[in-house]
Amino acid sequence: MTEQSLAELRKSAYKLVLCQLVVAGIIALTFFLAADAAAAKSAFKGGLVAIIPNCVFAFFAFRFNAADNANIVVMAFMRGQSLKLIISAVLLAVLFSQQQLVHGAFLTGFMLTLIAQWTAPVFFKH
Q1: How far apart are CA 69 and CA 29, in angstroms?
Q2: What gap in Å lies between CA 15 and CA 11, rounded to an integer?
Q3: Which long-range contacts (CB under 8 A, 24 or more apart) does 5-13 make?
Q4: What is the arithmetic mean of pLDDT over 63-83?
Q5: In degrees, to the nearest 5, what angle opens at C-alpha 24 toward C-alphas 81 and 85?
Q6: What is the pTM for the complete model shown?
Q7: What is the model's pLDDT at position 4?
Q8: What phi and psi values does residue 66 have, to the nearest 5 degrees?
């Protein structure tokens, strides 16, 4: 893998994170127009719970070039995935403990943002 292809993969990963941020914003705007500000904030927080761990994973997963040392790349992917799961669990626990959280809106924002991640290969060629 060349530095150029690594840069393209890194760019695609961050493009996915940006796409998820747009989806979370649209969901929050929809809840703001349909319900109230508390539901919109909860929906956006749900989206952020999906986005932040993905951003951390992208940072770790695309730090190294496989041509240099494949073992380092594998370890970086494993570290990124582990941190992604830990951060997701911590963020979910912290946010579910908030009194003002609208649980339905939060879960809707979280799930739709995750679905945006899973369907991204349909829209992006990388």
Answers
A1: 45
A2: 6
A3: 6/62, 6/65, 6/66, 8/126, 9/62, 9/126, 10/58, 10/62, 11/126, 12/124, 12/126, 13/58, 13/61, 13/62
A4: 84
A5: 15
A6: 0.87
A7: 66
A8: -65, -25
Give the alpha-carbon dihedral of 100, 28, 118, 89, to 10 degrees. -20
Per-residue pLDDT band for 1 (boundaries 50, 70, 90) equals low
The span from the CA of 63 to the CA of 73, in Å, is 8
- Please, which contacts does 120-123 make with residues 24 or more away whose CB atoms are closer than 8 Å? 120/16, 120/19, 123/19
Q: Which of 17, 6, 13, 11 has its CA nearest to residue 63?
A: 6
Separation between Cα atoms, residue 16 and residue 8, nearest integer Å: 12
Q: What residues contact 35, with CB distance under 8 A and at least 6 apart?
A: 102, 105
Report the candidate in 16, 70, 21 with the shortest Cα–Cα distance to residue 48: 21
**Rg for the chain (alpha carbons), in Å?**
16
